[in-house]
């Protein structure tokens, strides 16, 4: 029974695609991780405005409690 060279070819192809340095491994992992969270069409203006409004109310309440 002849040995198939397909498995050897596949392994050789994977070896060529491997990163060449630890920094490249880190870079590839970081890109893969951050690509999950990339959302270019998200408007963050309103949530930020609501947060600062809440923060302003909390500061006002703390000021009122401290002065009484």
Q: Which helices and strands, and how do they pair?
A:
Blueprint: H1 6-17, H2 22-35, H3 45-67
Walk me through what this model shows:
The structure is a single chain. With 68 residues, this protein is an all-alpha fold. It has one domain (6-67). It contains 3 helices and no strands. It has helices at 6-17, 22-35, 45-67.
Which assembly state applies to the chains in this document? single chain
Helix content: over 70%
- How widely separated are the two ends? 93 Å
Shape: rod-shaped
The structure class reads: mainly alpha
Low-confidence regions: none
Query: What number is the mean pLDDT?
Result: 78
**Radius of gyration in whole Å, from Cα?**
27 Å
> In the residues, how many domains can be counted?
1
Number of strand elements: 0
- Please tally the helical runs, counting DSSP H or I stretches of 4 or more residues: 3
Indicate the proportion of strand residues.
under 5%
User: SSE order in H/E notation?
Assistant: HHH
The major β-sheet equals: none
